Amino acid sequence: MRKRISLLGATGSIGIQTLDIIREHSEQFQLVAFSVGKNIAETRKILREFPVQLVSVINEEDASQLQSEFSHVEFVYGDAGLVQVAAHTNADVLVNAVLGSVGLNPTLEAIKKGITIAIANKETLVTAGHLVMQAAKEYNVPILPVDSEHSALFQAMNGEKRSEIAKLIITASGGSFRDRTREELKNVTVKDALNHPNWSMGSKITIDSATMMNKGLEVIEARVLFDISYDDIEVLLHRESIIHSMVEFEDTSVIAQLGTPDMRVPIQYALSYPDRLPRPHAKRLNLAEIGKLHFEEMDYNRYYALKLAIDAGRAGGTMTTVLNAANEAAVALFLQEKIGFLTIDELIERAMDAHVNISSPDLETILHVDAQTRKTVRNMLK
Ligand SMILES: NC(=O)C1=CN([C@@H]2O[C@H](COP(=O)(O)OP(=O)(O)OC[C@H]3O[C@@H](n4cnc5c(N)ncnc54)[C@H](OP(=O)(O)O)[C@@H]3O)[C@@H](O)[C@H]2O)C=CC1
Ligand SMILES: CC(=O)[C@@H](O)[C@H](O)COP(=O)(O)O
Ligand SMILES: [Mn+2]
Description:
Blueprint: E1 3-8, H1 13-24, E2 29-35, H2 40-49, E3 54-57, H3 60-69, E4 74-77, H4 78-86, E5 93-96, H5 104-112, E6 116-119, H6 122-139, E7 143-145, H7 148-157, E8 165-172, H8 190-193, H9 203-211, H10 213-226, E9 233-237, E10 243-249, E11 254-258, H11 264-272, H12 287-290, E12 296-297, H13 304-315, H14 319-335, H15 341-354, H16 363-379
Parallel strand pairs: 1-2, 1-5, 2-3, 3-4, 5-6, 6-7, 8-9
Antiparallel strand pairs: 8-10, 9-12, 10-11
Helix pairs in contact: 4-5, 5-6, 6-10, 6-14, 9-14, 10-13, 13-14, 13-15, 14-15, 14-16
The structure holds NADPH dihydro-nicotinamide-adenine-dinucleotide phosphate (NDP), 1-deoxy-D-xylulose-5-phosphate and manganese (II) ion (MN).
Function: Catalyzes the NADPH-dependent rearrangement and reduction of 1-deoxy-D-xylulose-5-phosphate (DXP) to 2-C-methyl-D-erythritol 4-phosphate (MEP).
Binding site for 1-deoxy-D-xylulose 5-phosphate: 122, 148-149, 173, 196, 209, 214-215, 218
Catalytic activity: 2-C-methyl-D-erythritol 4-phosphate + NADP(+) = 1-deoxy-D-xylulose 5-phosphate + NADPH + H(+)
């Protein structure tokens, strides 16, 4: 029987590549429900190709319009719609590729329904990883990583005992501005920042990659997913994005996962796990053609956002919620050209400094702190 998939964020970078995999392996996978935001033109295309049962959009008017065009599909909307798609009872796997901490509630509700989670949506793990992992344990639901580094770590660990792992080494490309000093970042434009050297991704994560907050979020994501302490997670600058991450074991062996930078590989692995499926048309890795791979130590003054993220992770409690919400708000302001690039770090640091940390927060507290932090950051501009 085919694996039935519900997909949050179908019109995004990961969403579109997930549809590629479902299309390539239509004998293995079936899309049963999906969510989008506001891209209704793309939604119509998906609806014409995939015979799904349920679709969620952000706006009620879009849901009504689509309902009049596609009478055999059920349309829902808003945050409640996201939850309905995520927890769709006919799904075996939820691919969570929505952007931002709005993915938290749908993830928790899907877990309660016993649906396996393939997670790209790192903001959910950063804002409330402890709630996701607790629920996954309680309902015995696998959480499979889609983020390339975490898929690499998961593959390198290959089920070996935690006690045999010495450290995780997460690679970082350095993003759009890796060859510039911090001083040279004062007047960079949105267009410059969106020009990632190796990956084609959505706008928010591309900015996160340029500030290096993406790597900070990924360190927290690794801590949450693999239960490894911050002391044993290292970040290594690797400009080619060929080694997606590595695990060093106690016997000094290091196991890495390599591949061309193509998110369809980790997406497919999360869907096919524990099996592997062929990708006959994909570009294969040719190390002789690449010739050299480069590695450099991280500079935490140059990449200040990475330091802020690790500080937040070590503080725990609601501090990672503040880090994430402040970052989401600040990146949105940068993309709207309301603040400069370096102001992103500044606003996040100010939000963290102003926050009184709350340990072991429940869902209500997380949602409250998230909303308050976004307000605080926006008010900093007044
Ligand atoms: N892109 C990549 O290669 C990678 C991404 N990730 C993570 O995956 C997630 C998605 O990233 P990416 O695909 O790049 O993002 P995109 O911006 O390309 O896509 C985001 C998707 O989420 C939808 N969306 C955005 N906001 C909302 C909202 N408030 N409510 C409902 N739907 C919403 C968008 O809808 P619409 O466009 O219709 O408005 C779109 O479908 C992020 O958490 C990112 O960090 C992780 C590793 C790699
Ligand atoms: C494809 C992916 O997983 C991104 O998170 C990617 O890792 C971004 O690259 P850098 O953050 O290393 O620039
Ligand atoms: Mn990544």
